[in-house]
Amino acid sequence: MKYITDIIPSIMVRLEREDKEIESLHMDSREVTPNGLFFCIEGTKVDGHDFASQAVNNGAAAVIAERHVDVEAPVWLVKDTQKVMAYAADHFYDHPTKDVRVIGITGTNGKTTTSHLVESILNEEQTKTGLIGTMYAKIGSESIETNNTTPESLELQQLFAGMRDKEVKSCVMEVSSHALQMGRVRGVQFRTAVFTNLSQDHLDYHGSMESYRNAKGLLFSQLGNSFAGELSTAVLNGDDAASAYFEAVTTVPVLTYGLSENNDIYAENINTTGSKTSFTLHTPWGSTEVEYPLLGKFNVYNALAAIAACIAENVSVTSIVDGLKHAPGVSGRFEAVEAGQESTIVVDYAHTPGGLENVVQTAREMTEGRLYAVIGCGGDRDKEKRPKMAAVAEKFSDMVILTSDNPRSEDPVSILEQMEAGFTGNTYEIIEDREKAIERAVFLAGAGDTVLIAGKGHETYQIVGDQTLPFDDRKVAKEAVRKNNKQA
Ligand SMILES: CC(=O)N[C@H]1[C@@H](OP(=O)(O)OP(=O)(O)OC[C@H]2O[C@@H](n3ccc(=O)[nH]c3=O)[C@H](O)[C@@H]2O)O[C@H](CO)[C@@H](O)[C@@H]1O[C@H](C)C(=O)N[C@@H](C)C(=O)N[C@H](CCC(=O)O)C(=O)O
Ligand SMILES: Nc1ncnc2c1ncn2[C@@H]1O[C@H](COP(=O)(O)OP(=O)(O)OP(=O)(O)O)[C@@H](O)[C@H]1O
Ligand SMILES: N[C@H](CCC[C@H](N)C(=O)O)C(=O)O
Ligand SMILES: [Mg+2]
Prior knowledge:
Number of strands: 25
Structural class: alpha/beta
Number of helices: 16
Shape: globular
Bound molecules: ligand UAG, adenosine-5'-triphosphate, 2,6-diaminopimelic acid, magnesium ion
Number of domains: 3
Helix content: 25-40%
Strand order of the largest sheet: 10-9-8-11-7-12-13-14-15-16-17
CATH architecture of the largest domain: 3-Layer(aba) Sandwich
Distance between the termini: 69 Å
Strand content: 15-25%
């Protein structure tokens, strides 16, 4: 049991307030339980202030709001409920990140992949680690469903508290630019913060590349001395121009990684054999050979980011080498689909021009025959990336099939027209139905050819309007091979 004054810094409160004992924190009126504290959040669809009375009817002891709401319970007025909620959650759960070391990863692409590499390395030394990201949250081997890449603060701090209770020593997490901008991670004590890369995404939300970058910068500007008095570390991709900004906004020591020798940590002699990559790793403390089961230059960066983060976390070189070697493939990231077909079929999560460029190039390099790219762009997301993704796919493939990828509330045909504007030639087809688009590519591809199906990766659904329908690129591709064999 805690009092409101125990969890809300007084400086954030605007007017006098009546203290209350509270047992739980809520941002959804429908989930409020007796003696809960309800935070009114203005969302994109509705305004939480309109649900304050429902929250009180459900037993809320008090309400935290940005403006007056007419309810039979004390109302505490604050400037920004979402940010106050983040601090309150950290206090409510008694600062879990004091005990759980948090490694935060931000950047446009590579967060999920890098976090899994870090997890694999940490598991060499720790029996139970935590992970929070796009696909799920994990406490040891227990997987917990999440909605967002970086959950809202209440869910996030609850996850950290669960980790602390289960004696998790370290947690690696993806920190999205949305989360940084909305303050979901305020109060989180990051020990190591990692930057992967910056390229275009989410301009619908951030407005410009500069404010997108600045949002990511919040991870580095909020780094400082940890509760334990230890220094935090900023791990930066020294080959990416945005790192100069992150270095400028942080006060903590910086460790850089990349392919150029100017970096503290860099790779040399990169080699690919079968499904494995190896390189010579150079660090200020010595050199060693590493090997891991991922392909592509972009994954060299992800491996280096994971290595640098683990060096910052004092993990031994032996564990780093072994952890990378034993790293499992990440679901839906350059995942090969095997259904006995003659062609190579790869499912990937590239959903930005930068991500797609890397992955199409990697597919091109490993393809002797023709490369077929099946791509789409999400609805209710950055519109500017649509023609750019089409252009990038056209540049490196022999044929592009444009199709739907979570059109959400938008007209799928209009999304496809916006993508089509990016083509300069005519080696493409437009097949709105994703299943048919995949079937078409599988039908066209023969021995030596590759079909790259990008955009949905691990997703097992297609969001059309407000319906979430089952859809898994891997299953559909397998079924397409089966149908194709039957017809032949
Ligand atoms: C734009 C955005 O970030 N939206 C998030 C937001 O939802 P919303 O704004 O639609 O909320 P809303 O439905 O309008 O409701 C407003 C408030 O009223 C409350 N409410 C609502 C109804 C009711 O009856 N009672 C009630 O109290 C809601 O609980 C909420 O507190 O709050 C939800 C709960 O935390 C989030 O799940 C949701 O993320 C949605 C799913 C989303 O798509 N977010 C994306 C843009 C996002 O955050 N992406 C990033 C980056 C991904 C990447 O890596 O590229 C991420 O971290 O996931
Ligand atoms: N370091 C990288 N540089 C460029 N592209 C990358 C890199 N790593 C992965 N990609 C591409 O981006 C896709 C998504 O990778 P991943 O899921 O690791 O990124 P993410 O940052 O977690 O994405 P999200 O923003 O959706 O959480 C991959 O499928 C691949 O195509
Ligand atoms: N985290 C990204 C994932 C995009 C995946 C793609 N399949 C889409 O729906 O646009 C986003 O929410 O923008
Ligand atoms: Mg991710």
